[in-house]
Amino acid sequence: MIDLYTFTTPNGRKASIMLEEVGLPYRVQVIDIMRGAQFAPEFLALNPNNKIPVMVDPQGPDGQPITVFESGAILIYLAEKTNSPLWPADPRQRSVALQWLMFQMGGLGPILGQNHHFRRAAPEQIDYAIERFGTETERLYKVLDRRLGEVPFLAGEAVTLADIACYPWIDRHDWHHIDLAAFPNVARWFDALGQREAVQRGMAVPQLER
């Protein structure tokens, strides 16, 4: 059975949503990043970059165990392992999905993550940083809204990995001080994805003890 090392972050939930979408059984291994569990030697042996999520598949492509880190790599690995329609077979459609996946990996995630940090976690308020990442966050929401005014989902007519990657980040729109009413196409897309049972299950992972 696959082991998913994760926590309650957007990147972690990208992986759990994808596992739910493709229907593979998995065990959740909670890595409490608030307590520094990502720096433990046993976790660093899985990911030298000390980031979640990490996935260990005992039945890799050659039948041997494989460890996969980086959330985008996990999404692609799972899609290819299961021949999922979330990763289009058509080369042109796959290219579009890949572009929007990279938009999330290289832009949306890092910028929104910095927005989170300077608004919620920084030991002191730095107005320049809050304004800088707040402005860029709004720009990225506008990019999404324009795109989703053209097509139902980021890569076109069907849900793909790109949507799975972006959804958990947009789920924290209140953390970004973003009102989705100002981005009606994003709001429509967000509601549509949120109705998928696999998305609902994946967003509930991991369950933390209180």
Automatic annotation (TrEMBL):
What the entry lists under CDD domains is as follows: GST_C_YfcG_like, GST_N_Ure2p_like
GST C-terminal domain: which residues?
A: 90-210
Q: Which residues form the GST N-terminal domain?
A: 1-86
Any Pfam family hit: GST_C
Domain of life, per UniProt, equals Bacteria
Matches recorded under PROSITE patterns: GST_CTER, GST_NTER
The family database entries (InterPro entries) matched by this protein are listed as: Glutathione-S-Trfase_C-like (IPR010987), Glutathione-S-Trfase_C_sf (IPR036282), Glutathione_S-Trfase (IPR040079), Glutathione_S-Trfase_N (IPR004045), GST_C (IPR004046), Thioredoxin-like_sf (IPR036249)
PANTHER family recorded: GLUTATHIONE S-TRANSFERASE GSTA (PTHR44051:SF8), GLUTATHIONE S-TRANSFERASE-RELATED (PTHR44051)
User: What name does UniProt use for this protein?
Assistant: GST-like protein
Organism of origin is Roseospirillum parvum
Q: What is the lineage of its organism?
A: Bacteria, Pseudomonadati, Pseudomonadota, Alphaproteobacteria, Rhodospirillales
